[in-house]
Amino acid sequence: MVIGIDIGSTTTKVASLGSNNEIIKIKTKAIDAITSATGAFGKMIMENHFRLEDIEKINITGAGSSKITGNLFGIRTDKIDEMSAIGIGGKYLSKKDQIIISNIGTGTAIIQVNGDIITHLGGTGVGGGTITGLAKELIKTSEYSAIVQYASQGNINNVDLNIGDITETDIGFLSKDFTASNFGKMLDIATKEDIALGIINMAYQVIGMVSVFAARSKNNDIVVVTGFGSNNPLGQKILTHISKAYSINFEFPVDAEYATAIGAALSK
After folding, report:
1. What residue ranges in the chain does DSSP mark as E strands?
2. Is 242 contained in some domain?
3. Long-range contact list for 46-53, CB < 8 A, 24+ apart?
4. pTM for the whole thing?
5. Which of 78, 165, 197, 225 could link 151 by a cystine bridge, Cβ 3.0 to 4.6 Å?
6. How many domains does the chain have?
7. Per-residue pLDDT reduced to its tens digit, 138-149
């Protein structure tokens, strides 16, 4: 058995494939790299009743992996390039050989998978960290679940300027309900719920458009969304809205949040 550990800036995820290829996974809050890696690994072992002697090796990846030197618990420990792990994990979950991956974490990385070739195309600093950082200042909370809860009750028309606010007709192929300017309206009556939705809408629209441009540049029409931000229902709705205008299919695989850890576990 190979264990994959993705040590991120806010959470650490551990994944492995069981005997029937079922995905075994857990996550913990990141404290520091060593505490996160050892604690998450220990939790995986205890909760699944694994034996240390059954573990062939541990593959670590993510921002915090550079802090780990040597082997963990006397088990061979290898470092895996994070972009490669994202590509391998996204390919495995999507069951497709030709995809673009948008991995939404603190920021967002864009990866191309072309068969066995994985290429890091770039990305954007806009991601989950953007949402929590702006929310901390604008609505006085940085708790991600609270931000999403507020946003689910928000009215985007009190914050964003839409095409329909400035013209009676569609602009090109974009309908009147598309955003002309994020936070471009910002009414005095806007509530914290409206602002929370505006933050999430802006972040996912940026991620969506960067993903669209990447997919089109590679003549691909499938974007697989992975990472922590892949399971945000509001984010999924925003990306799906973009997909209809640009004929790019955004897919959200089960367990996409664990794609990088899964990719690490699958790496040789």
Report:
1. 2-7, 11-17, 23-29, 57-61, 77-79, 98-104, 108-114, 117-124, 161-162, 179-181, 222-226, 249-251
2. yes
3. 48/24, 50/1
4. 0.93
5. 197
6. 2
7. 999 999 999 999
